[in-house]
Amino acid sequence: MMTNSSRLMLYFRELKALLYLSSPILVAQLSTVGMSFIDTSMAGHYSTEDLAAIAMGTSIWIPVYLLIRGTLMATTPMVAHLYGAGKSQQIGSPVRQANWIALALGFIGFIFLQNSGWILILLDISPMLIEKTTDYLAALSWGAPAICMYEVLACYCEGCSKTKPSMIFSLLALLINIPLNYLFIYGKFGFPELGGTGCGYATATCFFLMLILMVAFVTFNSDHKKYNIFTRLEIPDTKIIIHLLKLGIPIGLAFFFEAGIFCVIALIIGKLGTTIVAGHQIALNFSSITYMVPLSLSMGLTIRTSQAIGAGNFEKAAFIGYAGIVTALLAACISAIAILLFSEQITSIYTLNPAVRALAVELLFFAALFQFFDAMQIASIGALRGYKDTRIPMIMILVACWVIALPFGYLLGLTDIITEPMGPHGLWIGLLAAMCISAPQLAIRFRIVSRREIEKNKIAS
Fold first, then answer.
1. What is the DSSP letter of 123?
2. 3-class DSSP state for residue 73?
3. Are the beta carbons of 331 and 104 closer than 8 angstroms?
């Protein structure tokens, strides 16, 4: 019988292992956010119109990128299961097949971004903004195949417990993005002056740089040579590809549904006036930064649980999952307290406008409450991915976002059916209500799945 002290010792041991994996992932995630911030900032210094074009283009690109990235994230549990089972000779095949999927998705992403003007026309925005946004997305599209291939190799490395390469290459891309933006935006040293469109070319160039560095690492690093990722060429294997897609598409759709709801809410709030839009954007932007912590823990959880399951240790996999969820909740406590205590200081970073700051402080209260349920949800999802359980969580996210959050938030925010229109507060309450329902459900789902696998393993043995 395990005592409380021994459980605590095991928790701290697992916490150390989880943080070792998750910390580099967090830095890589923040580097990606940093690239977007730099693009927005430098384009804003060039012109307001170019800033708006980057903002519109990003709102189209990010959901598409998350859909693609999530689909390719199936590589991580596939590799981690084999790595945990000690079947290193089998790891190369699913990675090579995932590369075929990446090529296909990269091509689809390229075509979509090259022809995304119809979305902007539907939004009924000015012709000049449509032109600048489509030019930016067309420039960015050249990097779509590269980032897709990179994501597969990054997921492969993560499945083998190597998370530092992604961190290093993302940081390098972040640093290189600054001078590239300068060259392409302002047309220095013989480069054409492209304005905001130059950000697209700079980002695409960084994507190719990241891919080249990752390919070189996987090819020449001694730990990875034995997997023969690029020394063998495999034709597409429909059986493996279908298995990867069955696992990955629900992950991608879950990301897409969640990102999509925030985009739709932003469009709804856009009709309420610039002050409300600005206040909402501050609260959303800061909460998206704090979200990177549980997201990184979630990705580390997928690796740890997958490897334990691959090794046939289902008791350990369950403990890892619970430990990860507890850790995410503890991190959420810190984030929530910081938001509540320093909301005034946080808003002052973004603006000095008193009306915008006052609204942002009010919305940050909801963002603070959001931390707990968001952390529980994303950590539970990460643990479930380790069990290759992705379809039911995707359905839960779909229902939470589009059946609960949007209708309920709209009723509270823009109608008087339930109460007087609450504006952005009502929409945030809708999001919070949906999360209050879905997060515990996903935690319960993890409990059911982990227990079921333990029982199945006992019967089999």
1. T
2. coil
3. no
The dihedrals phi and psi of 298, each to the nearest 5 degrees, come to -60, -45
Handedness of CA 383, 33, 31, 194 (dihedral sign): positive
Which runs of consecutive H residues, i.e. helices, occur in 187-230? Answer: 197-220, 222-225
Place of tokens 């150390």: 16
Structure-token match 């609260």, residue found: 283
DSSP string computed for 308-353 = HHHTT-HHHHHHHHHHHHHHHHHHHHHHHHHHHHSHHHHHHHH---
pLDDT of 313 > 70? The answer is: yes
d(CA 326, CA 380): 10
Q: What is the pTM (predicted TM-score) of this model? A: 0.89
**Between 290 and 129, whose confidence is greater?**
290
% the chain with pLDDT above 90: 52
Mean pLDDT of the 366-375 span: 91
Structure confidence by residue, pLDDT tens digits, 16-53: 888 999 999 999 988 988 888 788 778 877 777 777 78
- Range 319-326 average pLDDT: 93
Residue 341 in tokens: 């205590």
Domain locations in the chain?
Answer: 22-236, 254-454
Q: What is the mean pLDDT of residues 385-390?
A: 92
Residue 56 structure tokens: 């519109």
End-to-end CA distance of the chain: give it in Å, rounded: 21
Is the CB of residue 21 less than 8 Å from the CB of residue 303? yes
DSSP 33-81: HHHHHHHHHHHHHH-HHHHHHHHHHHHHHHHHHHHHHHHHTTHHHHHHH
Backbone angles phi, psi at 229, to 5 degrees: -65, -40
* CA-based max dimension of the chain: 72
Count the Cβ atoms, other than its own, within 10 Å of residue 168.
16
Is the model's pLDDT at 229 over the cut of 90?
A: no
- Is the Cβ–Cβ distance between 113 and 61 less than 8 Å? yes
Asked if 47 contacts 195 with a C-beta cutoff of 8 angstroms, the reply is: yes
The pLDDT of residue 50 is 78
Of 374, 363, 372, 288, nearest to 337 by C-alpha is 372
- Residues 445, 29: Cα–Cα separation, whole Å: 27
Q: Write out pLDDT tens, residues 255-297.
A: 999 888 887 887 787 777 777 877 887 888 788 888 899 999 9
Q: How far is CA 58 from CA 42, 66, 290, in A?
A: 14, 12, 19
